[in-house]
């Protein structure tokens, strides 16, 4: 059931300049639901990374000369092929990452939506004509591809985070060297295979699997790479920004989050419970936009905790390939232990355990969905990104106070709140220091919106009509003598 090695999209070598290249070393890839080895994947050397970057540079010179319509058609074909192979891609994803198969199907469609979107945006990368300061002079602005892009992507969305970066880059005429997470390489390599079938020319999209530190350092320091895009933790993001400084690269960073979900006294509690279930337990709590702190008005606290606990008790935990599974394992045992430490420390600091609080009887890296109450703002759990199925519930009594608490974090990615008071909805939306605010909904992501954060959650925006900006540079053309 979990064997993916005989699938036609299964590849286990880096893809450089249109070829699957042999490597001196390999590394095992583990299925987190069974702790068994799926296969091994080739580890590109630093020399191979340099070659990939050189090939991407050569390919860039011809790719940028193609018409927007031509790039658009290739991206559209890629989208069609991904959707045609949705089940196979979802199976690869579930087996290497652990998320339930239905969620993996959703992720493939989500990832493909970025490719479809940017196949359309490719034709809309417009410039400007600026009213002149002199009668014999004209000023034009054109947008051009930034050049070779280095992309480093995470394991939590092994397909969609790649598509969200590669599609805008290719749409505007950049070439890419991608380093996917070493725990989930097969989704990336399958995408490369479909990209080749769609007609992406050799060298335009390269995938180097292998050691994160060495390959990441090469992508950041190599002067040919003109832009680095990364999704992952804030601490790794800071290291990459520093590594990019010497060659003054354009960077975009989609980093950690500490999302508040605020339930005001006038909210529809049943609806809030339903939406927070999604924003908290999506991907077993392993998304940067997952609810990390739940603030509930004291007047509805008991009702909320009771209804939320009932919903959490109903979650079906299991191997993502088993029908009906809603919560898979965490990515590995270390992740599970890290989450457990956060829970243990919170309890030590005075939190009370309402549900869960320990590793799941299924073993491996499964963790019980957990609810904590009686929390204070100065506890460590209010500051940390949990990245697991743990829901800490705080109570509050005052609007401005809860806004201050929600903003009391170094992060600023996603935030959520629940209210039916239109005045409050405007006030709170404007005062939350976050790149994204979602009102009365636990889902905010789609290809149509600008996804990204403020503060230490990063810079740049992915998706939407703004999504191509991170892959272009603005050129001013001054015309005189007119
Ligand atoms: C993330 O966790 O970084 C991505 C989540 C999303 O796209 O909704």
Question: What's the topology here?
Answer:
Blueprint: E1 15-16, E2 19-20, E3 25-31, E4 36-43, H1 46-63, H2 68-84, H3 86-97, H4 101-121, E5 128-130, E6 138-145, E7 148-152, H5 160-172, E8 175-179, H6 185-198, E9 205-207, H7 212-221, E10 225-231, H8 234-245, E11 250-254, E12 259-263, H9 269-281, E13 291-297, H10 301-313, H11 333-348, E14 352-355, E15 370-373, E16 390-396, H12 399-407, E17 414-418, H13 422-431, E18 436-439, E19 458-459, E20 472-479
The structure holds succinic acid.
What does this entry look like structurally?
This protein is α/β, with parallel strands linked by helices. Helices cover 37% and strands 21% of the residues. It has 13 helices and 20 strands. The protein has helices at 46-63, 68-84, 86-97, 101-121, 160-172, 185-198, 212-221, 234-245, 269-281, 301-313, 333-348, 399-407, 422-431, and strands at residues 15-16, 19-20, 25-31, 36-43, 128-130, 138-145, 148-152, 175-179, 205-207, 225-231, 250-254, 259-263, 291-297, 352-355, 370-373, 390-396, 414-418, 436-439, 458-459, 472-479. A hairpin with a 7-residue loop joins strand 5 (128-130) and strand 6. It is globular. The protein starts with 14 loop residues before the first strand and ends with a strand. The mean pLDDT is 98. Bound molecules: succinic acid. Residues 156-157, 231, 254, 287-289, 445 line the site of succinic acid (SIN).
